[in-house]
Each structure stands twice: as structure tokens, then as C-alpha cells.
Amino acid sequence: MSMNRDLHTLFAMAVGEEEVAVDPGVEYWHALTECARAEDLRGLLYYRTVSADLPAEIRAELMEDYRAPAESTVLQLHEFMEIGGALRDRKLEVLVLPGASLL
Fold first, then answer.
1. Nearest CA to 13 among 34, 37, 42, 55?
2. In the chain, pLDDT over 70 holds for what percent of residues?
3. By the 8 A CB rule, do 45 and 13 touch?
4. Measured between alpha carbons, how far is 13 from 6 in angstroms, rounded to an integer?
5. Which of 47, 61, 66, 98 has the maximal Cβ count within 10 Å?
6. Three state DSSP letters for the chain
7. pLDDT one-digit tens code per residue, 46-92
8. Confidence (pLDDT) at 36
9. How far apart are CA 97 and CA 48, in angstroms?
10. What pTM does this model have?
């Protein structure tokens, strides 16, 4: 399977234009997962294949990729809240910029 074909498959799955192939085989999933890793789309691949019959090792890997960013964001926001609380206790004003700059 070429990277171009895998990438096309990933994008088609992302927008809901392509369903998971019936029993495509472990090699297919490894190739698609590698492509998703290269494009930072493994969490999306997991989300779009949650009801598919994936090999257990692929499902576990994709589930971790889906869960890890959310866990990291929650931890970062908790740390930010602690810092904000310490600054507020010292009567310092904080201006929070939205978006990625916050994290």
C-alpha cells in the first residue's frame, strides 16, 4: 500500500466518505496506522474506527493516542489554574490569551 493511498484513505475516513474495509488484515492496519502517525492523525483514526473489528494491538495503540492528548490538556489546565490561583492570592491580574499560546 502506498503512502498516497493510505493518506487518501485517512482523509476520506476523516470526512466520513469512506467506511472501514471489511476484515482488511493486520498489514493494512499497520500501514494505515503508520500513515496516521506520520500525519498526526492516529487519534482521529481511532475515533473513526471505534466500532470496527481492529486487531487488539492496533486498537490499544490508537486508543492511547486518542486519550493521551486529552489527559495532557487536563493536566496542563490544572497547572494553569494553580498558577492563576497563586497570582490571584498576590493580587496580580492575569491576562489569558486564547488558543495554543495558553497551553
1. 42
2. 83
3. yes
4. 10
5. 61
6. CCHHHHHHHHHHHHCCCCCCCCCCCHHHHHHHHHHHHHCCCHHHHHHHCCCCCCCHHHHHHHHHHHHHHHHHHHHHHHHHHHHHHHHHHCCCCCCCCCHHHCC
7. 888 877 778 888 888 888 888 888 888 889 889 988 998 999 999 99
8. 83
9. 32
10. 0.54
Kindly state the cell numbers that stand for 42: 492516529
The three grid cell numbers given for residue 51, joined into one nine-digit string: 466500532
Pick from 14, 22, 15: nearest CA to 42: 14
Q: How far apart are CA 46 and CA 54, in angstroms?
A: 10
Which grid cell is 11?
A: 482523509
